[in-house]
Amino acid sequence: MVRGVIHNRRLLSLLDQAVISVTNMCTSVIIGRTCPKAQFGLYASGLSLVLLLTAIQSAIIAVPYTISRPQMRKEERAKYKGSSILHEMLLVSLGSVVLLYIGLCGSGRSGGDLRAILLTLSLVSGVICFRDFARRISYAELHFGFALVLDGILSLLQFLSIGILAWQHWLTASRALLAVGLASTCASAMWVIVNWKTLSFSVSHAIASFRITWGLGRWLLASSVLWSLSVDQYPWLITLFRAPADAAIWASGFGVMAFLNPIVLALNNDAAPRISNDYAAHGLAGLSRSVNRTATVAALLTLPIFIFLLIFGSRLVELIYGPKFSGAGPIVTLLSLGVWFYAIGLSFPYGMLTLKRAEVDFAINLACIASFLAVGIWLVCLDGVLGAAYSFLLVQTVALILRVAAFRAVVQSARRKTIETLAEKAVTWS
User: Fold this and answer.
1) Most CB atoms closer than 10 Å: which of 39, 87, 95, 351?
2) Which of the two residues, 426 and 389, has the higher pLDDT score?
3) How much is the pTM?
4) pLDDT band at 426 (very low <50, low <70, confident <90, very high)
5) Per residue in 24-44, pLDDT tens?
6) Structure confidence by residue, pLDDT tens digits, 328-353
7) Nearest to 254, CA basis, from 393, 114, 401, 154
8) Helix, strand, coil: what percent of the chain each, to 5?
9) Which pLDDT score, from 0 to 100, does residue 430 have?
């Protein structure tokens, strides 16, 4: 039985995401209960920027690595892995410089508090992003057990740091982000040490490999940025239009999504390597089966938790975060429905990316950001946190409908091209 668990990639991915989700949820609960609502809102706003950075790195580094690695010869993989790390180091350095510049030169309604968050992020965003990068590389190499061990160590360190700060009454949004950064630094260092013998660094290879992956990554980058702006940046939007305390209400509603997150994130991490490998092994038919099977599994696995959140969401928020967050039931309902739609549709973009049709996914995300700009921002201005929840659901609904339709069209187009190619070869041979 133990051996079966060790070799079950989907189960290990689920366990790993459960560890990550519990850690993030418990961190937010400690901050929400011990700090003023404004500090919790600032912490959520800071994390939303980290999500934007991880979306960028995933688009131009991690996902191209996941898709390309199975098709490489073994002797090429060490150089490509080392080149990916060089790409990652350059990217996170640029991100830190941008955050430092905005923190030093920018200003906002919340003045010093927002500036402090940005300056803190300039210090820790790089290691937090690298930890996410290391996890995705481990998944791409099907080392789910190793990722689980490292995330367990990270969780322990993060709990200890946040717990000590809360116990000593030193906890603030900036110090919480520093604690997350410290834990990420330790986990990242351990990952590098364990993987050191599998790395080969070459600047010339890094330049050449980036030129290759950019062909796929440029579309994915644009899509990821548009998607992150459409669904991840609501804490900043609420903070700017309303107040950090209102962003804390959003964060508490999204916090109970931790009950859905382990399954959603596990499926997301499993989808890309599984679909890529199924396509390499079984061609177009295998890819289509893999994508549809992943969507069906996602819908069925998340449905019971989705129903649970619909019924008990409001009580959960008040129970977990305290009475000051009461009345979040409608927000939880809208958010959980949106996350369920996201879970169902997460496999379709990976199918299109595997078929080298990243521009189609970009067009879908362009439609999502258009709906967000046309309606979403107006909803936030009109109704604050509840308007943001309606906007989130709107974007997820548009995305699901378009992803399903677009994937079917892409598969049909690929089949037609395959038939035409075979027909041309048959004529040539005759």
Assistant:
1) 351
2) 389
3) 0.77
4) low
5) 888 988 998 898 888 998 898
6) 888 989 999 999 999 999 889 888 88
7) 393
8) 90, 0, 10
9) 55
Question: Would you state the structure tokens that stand for residue 268, as one six-digit string?
Answer: 């997301």
Q: Provide the greatest CA pair distance for the chain.
A: 83
Q: Which two tokens stand for residue 353?
A: 């990316």
- Joined together, the tokens standing for residue 262 give 């382990």
Contact 270, 297 (CB under 8 A): no
Cα 46 from Cα 175, distance rounded (Å): 12
Per residue, the 3-state secondary structure of 227-261, as one string, reads HHHHHCCHHHHHHHHCCHHHHHHHHHHHHHHHHCH
At 14, list the tokens.
Answer: 């689920």
Q: 10 Å Cβ neighbour count for 320?
A: 18
CA distance 207 to 189: 25
- 211, amino acid identity: R
Rounded to a whole number of angstroms, the distance between the first and last alpha carbons of the chain is: 56
- Which three-class secondary structure state does DSSP give residue 430? coil
Averaged pLDDT of the chain: 84
- CB atoms under 10 Å from CB of 416, counted, come to 10
Distance CA 28, CA 48 (A): 13
For residue 172, report the phi and psi dihedrals to the nearest 5 degrees: -135, 175
How far apart, in whole angstroms, are the C-alpha atoms of residue 265 and residue 207? Answer: 31
- Check: CB of residue 359 under 8 Å from CB of residue 276: no
Residue 2 binned pLDDT confidence (cut-offs 50, 70, 90): very low
